[in-house]
Amino acid sequence: MRRALVTGGLGFIGSHLVDRLLRDGWEVVVLDNLLTGRRSNLEHQKGNPRLQIREGDIRHLQTVVSASVGCDAVFHLAAHALMRVSLGDHRADLDHNVIGTLNVLESMSANKISDLVFASTSALYGEAEVVPTPEDYSGVQTSLYGAAKLAAEAYASAFVQLTPMKFWAFRFGTVLGERCRRGAIWDFEHKLLKNPSELEILGDGKQSKDYLSVSDCIDGIMVGYEKSSEPVNIFNLGLQEQTTVDDVADIVIEEMGLSNVRKRYTGGVRGWIGDNPVVYLSIKRIQALGWKPKVSPAETIRSTARWTLEEIGGDRRAA
User: Fold this and answer.
1) From CA 319, how far away is CA 309, in angstroms rounded?
2) For residue 233, how many other CB atoms are within 10 A of its CB?
3) What is the pTM of this model?
4) Residues of the chain with CATH 3.40.50.720
5) Minimal CB count within 10 Å: which of 78, 130, 205, 239?
6) The CATH homologous superfamily of the domain defined by 3-175+212-237
7) End-to-end CA distance of the chain
8) Roughly what angle, to the nearest 10 degrees, separates helices 184-194 and 245-255?
9) Cα separation of 155 and 148, whole Å?
């Protein structure tokens, strides 16, 4: 039986990956500092003898060394991903996403673990001038988050030269689904519950993104991991259909049963510094391995909006 460490395994994407690994027969150790992760995300796995949850921070080397003992692979999803926070805290991405990743790499070397699977980001392409954007595109960095993820990938690729290790990186944009408690849908529904007649939208609403379902994201990660075996394996995960932020807002308004909602835009092509207005990834490389997304962006947005509304209502009742 294979054993995996999943950093950030109590988070949105991380908890879904834990579900998949357990379903596939792995033993799983979760390491999460609970800053954004929630134990409730894996409450349904309580009592599973193949799951161990450890509270700890990847910024502490010995914590990661201890958690990864006996593992065959590390699925590294723990990260600081709050771009707007980084505007004021310039060390957050360095400490979590670079130093934290270095600690993971050092731990793997110490415990002789061969496989590192890394949740990267399309943000490292910046405002790409080539669309669909391929994996070999090199753009100007527009956020500390993207820069830190790019640096983490570079460190991991270098470790492959130093140790008998293989590395998989998956670059995706906006992932949606159950347990997603941030982003545009979460933001829109909170705003509309406070004021059902008006919705503030950051930027001009024309930002064009790919909204990938978490189930397709997890499938892509596992297909890439299981079917590619180069020393360094880099894959985009995305859609060939783009959706604007305005479209997302319209679906949310409809799912909330509202009408005559006035949209108020903050202006500009970006919602905030580091918000790339167009994210459109080439997925030819992962498609060649047999992966393709199954869930349409409209279906993903709609189901996430429904779950979010139920979650927010549940949180309010609990309060």
Assistant:
1) 15
2) 20
3) 0.96
4) 3-175+212-237
5) 130
6) NAD(P)-binding Rossmann-like Domain (3.40.50.720)
7) 42
8) 50
9) 10
Residue 182 DSSP code: S
Residue at token pair 């956020």:
143
DSSP state of 235: E
Q: 202: which residues sit within 8 A by CB, 6+ positions away? A: 245, 265, 266, 271, 272, 275
pLDDT tens for 170-216 read 999 999 999 999 999 999 999 999 999 999 999 999 999 999 999 99
pLDDT tens digits, one per residue of 37-56: 999 999 999 999 999 999 99
Q: Which fold has domain 176-209+241-279+294-318?
A: UDP-galactose 4-epimerase; domain 1 (3.90.25)
Q: Cα(196)–Cα(102) distance, rounded to whole angstroms?
A: 46
Alpha-helical runs (H) found in 41-194: 61-67, 83-86, 92-93, 100-111, 144-162, 184-194
Whether residue 318 is predicted with pLDDT greater than 60 in this model: the reply is no
- Per the CB < 8 A criterion, the answer to whether 228 and 289 are in contact is yes
Q: Give residues with Cβ within 8 angstroms of 12, minimum separation 6.
A: 41, 175, 177, 179, 180, 181, 214
**DSSP string covering 11-34, please?**
SHHHHHHHHHHHHTT-EEEEEE-S
Amino acid (one-letter) located at 263: K
Return the amino acid letter for 252: V
Q: Tell me which DSSP letter residue 274 carries.
A: T
- Which residue in the block uniquely carries the two structure tokens 């927010």? 312
CATH 3.90.25.10 domain range(s) in the chain:
176-209+241-279+294-318
- Going by C-beta distance under 8 Å and a sequence separation of 6 or more, which residues neighbour residue 217? 13, 16, 170, 172, 175, 237
